[in-house]
Structure formats: C-alpha cells, structure tokens
Design brief:
Strand order of the largest sheet of chain A: 1-2
Family (chain B): Belongs to the GMC oxidoreductase family.
CATH architecture of the largest domain in chain B: 3-Layer(bba) Sandwich
Radius of gyration of chain A: 25 Å
Mean pLDDT of chain A: 59
Strand content of chain B: 15-25%
Low-confidence stretches of chain B: none
Strand content of chain A: 5-15%
Keywords (chain B): FAD, Flavoprotein, Oxidoreductase
Low-confidence stretches of chain A: 1-12, 32-42, 75-84
CATH topology of the largest domain in chain B: FAD/NAD(P)-binding domain
Cofactor (chain B): FAD
Radius of gyration of chain B: 24 Å
Number of strands of chain B: 19
CATH superfamily of the largest domain in chain B: FAD/NAD(P)-binding domain
Largest sheet of chain B: 8 strands, antiparallel
Shape of chain B: elongated
Helix content of chain B: 25-40%
Distance between the termini of chain A: 25 Å
CATH class of the largest domain in chain B: Alpha Beta
InterPro entries (chain B): FAD-dep_OxRdtase, FAD/NAD-bd_sf, GMC_OxRtase_C, P2Ox-like
Order of helices and strands of chain A: HHEE
Oligomer: heterodimer
Protein name (chain B): Choline dehydrogenase-like flavoprotein
Largest sheet of chain A: 2 strands, antiparallel
Helix content of chain A: over 70%
Chain lengths: 103, 479
C-alpha cells in the first residue's frame, strides 16, 4: 500500500465511524419513541406496528452495513500492514538483485 | 532452369516477374509464383557457391556503435544468408505491429492478422518445427515463449530440382543489378552486369527487389541516384530506420523453483515481457533466454550467492537438505531496437568491383534500447523476488548506470531490418502496405528491409510470410 492508498484507507475508516455514531443515535431515539408510545397507548394500531417494524429493520440495516464495512476495512488494513512488514527492501549487491533480508 | 547471362537480353517481353536476389525472400517469391504457372526470372548476383568476387560487394563501412564487419553478417550467393543461418524462427507478437507506448514509430501499416494466413505455408517452406503457444508465467508480467529450433533449411538445396528443371522459373547467376529505368511511374527495364563487365537488359511486367536488409536500401539509393530521383522522388526515408536485434549475455540466475519457469524439464527457456509490461515500463520488446547450467556450475553459483547473502544462503542449504533441486541459468537476451531516422544505410565513397558505391552503416543504440534490456532484466528479477522463485545477477554493464553496452561478444543477431520501411505515406516510408514502391506501379521490395519495427524475434519467418503475401498480391495483378 503506497502513501496515497493509506491516506484513502484512513479517511474511509473515519467516515465509517461517523456513520456508526449517527446510526446508533437514530436507533436509540426510535426505540425510546416506541417505548413511550407503548406506555401511553396499550394496544398499538396497524400503522404503529408497521412504523415499529420499519424503524427496527432500517435501524438494524443502517447499523449492520457500516459495521460489516468496518470489519472488512480493518481486515484489509491489517493485511496490508502485515504485507508491508513482510516485503523487505530491495538491494543490488555485486549485480545480484536481493531482498535486504537475504543478507 | 538456369540461363546463361549472355542470353538474358533475348527474353523480350516474356517475363511476368523479374525477381532480383536469390535469398530467402527472393526464392520464396520466385518458386511460389513459378509454381502457379507464371513466367519468373530470378537474377542472383552471386555464384552458385561462395565466391570472393561476389562476397566482396558486401564489404562496407560502419559508423557509430561497434558493429560486425558487414561482409561477415550475410552471404552473397545463391540461397543468400540461408546458407549460414541457424534456423531459429518465431512469428512476431501481435503487439509488435502496433504503436508501442515507448516509441509510436513501431507501428506497421498492417497487423499480424494480415500475415497469419501465410504462417502455415511459410512454416512448410522453412520446414519449421511446431511452435507451441505462449503461456503466461503466474505472478508475473512475463510469458514463456517458444521458437522453432529445428535444422535450418537451405533454400538453394531445397529447391535445387525446381531451379534446375522448372520451365516457368528461369534462374540467372552472376546477374548484378546496375540500374532501373523508369518512365511514367513504371520501371520499363532493369540492367544487369556480370563480373566481366558485360551488361544485359531485362524487361518484365513486375520487378521484385529481394537483395537483403542492407542491399535493398543500397541498390535503391544507387538506382535512384542514377535516375536523378525519378525512381523514388520522396526519398527522405530511403535507407533510414535501419534496425538490428542487439544480442548479449546479460547475467545469470539461481532458480529455486525451476518448475515455475519450465526449467525443470527444458534446458533452454525463453521468456518475454507481455504487452502490459511494455506499457507500464515504457520499454520495447525483448526475448530473454535462460540456459540451464550443469550441477557443478549451479553449486558454484549457490556458493557465490551464499557468501553475499548469508541469510539466503542458510535457506538454500536447508532447501538442499530437504532434497529440493535448484538450477543455475545463464541469461542471454535479444531485444528490440527503437526505429530511428538517424540509423541508416548510406552510399559510401568507395565503390565495389561492379562500380556501385559500397554500403555505409550509421548505427547507434538509443537510450530506449538500453532502457529496454535493463527493464527486462529487472522485470525478471523482481518477479523472482516477489514469488521467492530465485535471484538474478545482472552483468556488470547492466548493473551500473548509465548502461554502457558491450563492444565485444555477440553484439547483434545479424538481423538486418528497415531501410525501405513500409508505411502509409511516401513521407514516412518507401513502400506501401503491398510492399510496392510508392512512386512506381510495378516495383516491389521483398525482405526484412520493409519492416517498420523489429520486435525481438528472428526475422526470417516474418519476411517469408510477407513474401508469400506479396505473391498473392502479384497473382491478382497478373490475372
């Protein structure tokens, strides 16, 4: 991974974290609203059940998508770090093209 | 059948095609057209066998980089340079006909697909072994390539009976081209001389000049001078864009996994960069040749490498103890030379025994030529490192920068190309895509002098393909 690619990856991680924060806030607020509803009106109507379902699945979806991306991005980042550690600088000694670690 | 020189002038208007030159290209055209029933006259300047009086015309001077004596790189008698060639053949790569990113002048006006229909016939004529398809090397931008390495065909011997007996093919020896007379965009007759200074004139419907990768340019320069430029009015590129295949021993390698390159089964493995590598590394084409070392030389290479790189040496020892078979390899290369206007055949001051100015070759290798061989080696070296398949050692002159090419050893492949370049317009070249002189309706050039670029492969197969394609073209016009 070159310098340009590593900057791009760190930006991606930053935006994924922001997404997760916004999602958690949304999910928390919708859960709070629903429990308030349930406390005051004991029997939810069809429209309310539909709203509850929509909010729950949307919240889960929004939460899962960035989480998955975060996991894969983190994996890729750790793999590239590992690769960088493995790739030894190249040197030319007496015409031999070698890895520095060969010596 | 053979014709005495003295009777050449008696042929009148009976000749359909006069082929000038009896080498690979000339014999291919003559035998093919005669086999189809056309009246062909083949005029060979040399004798039936090697003779000093003929070979002397090939002497010339060289300016620029070190090159071989011109008379030692070709033969001037019946059969031409097929009398001493090695028979190594391979078709050009498809991308050899295109404008390569590093040098757009490499573009031909035709593509490989226009030569492919003539591959089988050319392979039969040259008696080639089957040439397996190229295969990519996994994990690299290299491909394993193949050549026909069978016994070389000598066209003089192969077609001895035809030359002796054919009623349609007349062959005249010691007939040296002295001039081409042109009127209204057509050559009316050619003048020939023997070594006694006697001259004969030949008329023909079509003329095919097939005198090799230096003398095609030399003779056209001479004939054009004789006609005050009427033969080739736009002659700026005549003799120009001359090319060779630089050859050299470029290093050695220790291969840890010979099977990755096929070196476990073959003693000689040929590699070349793929098209993407040529673009990304801004280089031209190159053929790398790995020649497997014997066990003793391989052990010496291991010891040399282990003393320079002890950590790797320990690993090599461990592999040996596990029973792994590794091979050392000598690395040789032949690479494409950039087509440059400056590299050229000129008429020298001195004249040969026939009175024609000798050739002067002005030839230099460019920065791109040097870049091509170094990058090709780095491509192989980096692949070996990336896949831990081996290590290479670049020879001294390649390891140091700037690269200074050797002035001894192989130097080049004796592959003479260019000088009568094929192009779309008379401003850019001498012949059109049919191999016809732009300014003359009935004069064609056969041979590697029409190559617009050189690839890395030996030129004979490609020039025979072109000659057979020219036969089809001429047959249409003769009909």
């Amino acid at each position: 991974m070159n310098q340009y690619e590593s900057i791009k990856a760190s930006h991606a991680l930053y935006f994924q974290a922001l997404w997760l924060l916004v999602t958690l806030i949304l999910l928390g607020s919708s859960t709070l609203a629903l429990s308030k509803d349930n406390a005051t009106i004991m029997t939810p109507t069809y429209t309310r059940r539909r709203l509850l379902k929509t909010a729950t699945f949307t919240g889960m979806g929004i939460a899962l998508l960035p989480l998955c991306t975060l996991i894969s991005a983190a994996g890729a980042s750790s793999r590239s770090a590992k690769g960088q550690a493995e790739k030894s600088p190249r040197v030319m000694v007496d015409g031999w093209l070698l890895n520095a670690s060969d010596r | 059948m053979y014709l005495p020189f003295e009777t050449l002038g008696e042929l009148g208007d009976s000749v359909d095609v006069c082929v000038i030159g009896g080498g690979a290209a000339g014999v291919s055209v003559a035998v093919t057209l005669a086999g189809r029933g056309h009246r062909v006259l083949m005029c060979e300047g040399g004798d039936a066998q090697f003779s000093e009086r003929s070979q002397d015309s090939y002497r010339g001077e060289v300016q620029g980089d070190t090159y071989l004596p011109l008379e030692s790189t070709r033969l001037r008698h019946l059969g031409g340079s097929t009398n001493h060639w090695g028979g190594v053949c391979r078709p050009f790569d498809a991308y050899d006909f295109t404008a390569k990113p590093a040098a757009p002048e490499t573009a031909w006006p035709i593509g490989r697909e226009q030569l492919t229909p003539y591959f089988d016939a050319a392979a039969a004529l040259l008696e080639l072994d089957p040439i397996p398809a190229d295969t990519p090397i996994a994990g690299s931008a290299l491909q394993r390539i193949h050549f026909s390495l069978g016994a070389p065909v000598r066209v003089q011997h192969k077609y001895a009976d035809t030359l002796q007996d054919s009623e349609h093919l007349l062959c005249c020896l010691t007939a040296n081209l002295m001039g081409l007379e042109t009127q209204n965009g057509r050559v009316s007759h050619a003048t020939f001389s023997n070594y006694a200074g006697e001259q004969q004139t030949v008329r023909a419907r079509y003329f095919v000049l097939a005198c090799g990768g230096i003398d095609n340019a030399r003779l056209l320069l001479w004939c054009n001078q004789q006609t005050q430029g009427k033969l080739i009015p736009q002659a700026d590129t005549l003799g120009r864009y001359w090319m060779e295949h630089p050859h050299a021993t470029v290093g050695q390698a220790l291969i840890f996994k010979p099977e990755a390159l096929g070196l476990d089964e073959a003693y000689n493995v040929f590699l070349s960069p793929d098209e993407d590598a040529l673009a990304s590394r801004q280089m031209l084409n190159c053929g790398l040749r790995l020649h497997r070392m014997n066990a003793e030389a391989t052990q010496g290479l291991m010891e040399q490498l282990s003393s320079l790189a002890p950590a790797l040496g320990e690993q090599i020892t461990a592999w040996q103890q596990e029973g792994r078979v590794m091979h050392g390899a000598m690395l040789r290369a032949a690479w494409e030379q950039e087509p440059r206007f400056e590299n050229r055949i000129e008429l020298g001051e001195e004249r040969d025994a026939l009175g024609i100015p000798r050739s002067r070759l002005v030839w230099e290798q460019s920065e791109l030529d040097r870049h091509t061989i170094r990058e090709s080696m780095l491509l192989l070296g980096e692949y070996l490192l990336d896949e831990d398949t081996g290590r290479i050692q670049l020879t001294d002159w390649l390891a140091a920068l700037p690269v200074v090419l050797p002035t001894d050893g192989e130097i080049a492949g004796r592959h003479h190309m260019g000088g009568t370049r094929m192009s779309h317009t008379p401003e850019q070249g001498i012949v059109n895509s049919d191999c016809r002189l732009f300014a003359q309706d009935n004069v064609y050039v056969a041979g590697s002098s029409v190559f617009a670029s050189a690839g890395h492969a030996n030129p004979t197969l490609t020039l025979v393909q072109l000659a057979l394609r020219l036969c089809d073209h001429l047959e249409q016009r003769l009909a």
